[in-house]
Design brief:
Helix content: 25-40%
CATH superfamily of the largest domain: Aconitase, domain 4
Radius of gyration: 20 Å
Structural class: alpha/beta
Oligomer: single chain
Strand order of the largest sheet: 4-3-2-1-5-6-7
Number of helices: 8
CATH topology of the largest domain: Aconitase, domain 4
Number of domains: 2
Number of strands: 7
CATH class of the largest domain: Alpha Beta
Strand content: 15-25%
Largest sheet: 7 strands, mixed
């Protein structure tokens, strides 16, 4: 959970080091038929998490003790590539994932995620390797400080880029509509000023 005072996210990080993990794998097509956002957590990475008969694949990281309640995923390059499948973002959030750390992301997935307040963090591969070393030594928890945009492990601290607009959306828990409504006074002032300067424009409506 986000701590209001320190703007911190804390939790276990699960490494899923698959290059080019696309949205079809993150959320398979059979889970796209629902008309609500509920129940998508079951579909996340379904073919990796479950056998065809629905039983768990014990070897998969999210099915292992200590990682079932993971809050963060450390992914491989081009995480979330492929088609625009917003269900992939919703499913990850319903599974309890609050952030994904990777060297790069699929462009469409990147936009969908941040607009839905799923934090995506881009780090250099060398930095990710350092985080993975801490995980391998048994230090499975990370801390993400959204005040200074930094990731902390047991021995490392790395900063990451994040647009201020998206940072505020995540910290304040507002979506794009809510973020726009926060600017309503400025929007209203602009409209009134524009009409005062160009009164003829109203006649064109």
């Amino acid at each position: 959970m986000l701590e209001k005072q320190g703007q911190l996210l804390r939790g276990v990080a699960a490494p899923i080091l698959i290059d080019n993990l696309d949205t079809d794998q993150i959320m398979p097509k059979q889970f796209l038929r629902i008309i609500t956002r509920q129940g998508l957590d079951r579909g996340v990475l379904y073919d990796l998490r479950f056998h065809p008969d629905g039983s768990e694949r014990k070897e998969f990281i999210l099915n292992q003790n200590g990682f079932r309640a993971a809050k963060f995923i450390i992914g491989g390059p081009n995480f979330g590539c492929g088609s625009s499948r917003e269900h992939a973002v919703w499913g990850l959030q319903q599974l309890g994932i609050e952030a994904v750390i990777a060297p790069s992301f699929g462009e469409i997935f990147f936009g969908n995620a941040l607009n839905n307040r799923l934090l995506l963090i881009v780090l250099q591969q060398e930095q990710i390797n350092a985080l993975l070393q801490d995980l391998a030594s048994g230090h499975h928890e990370l801390e993400i400080d959204l005040h200074i945009c930094a990731v902390r492990s047991a021995t490392q601290v790395f900063t990451f880029p994040l647009a201020e607009r998206h940072r505020k959306m995540i910290v304040e828990g507002v979506d794009m509509v809510g973020a726009t409504l926060q600017m309503l006074p400025a929007i209203t002032d602009f409209e009134q000023g524009h009409r005062a300067r160009h009164p003829w424009a109203d006649a064109l409506r």
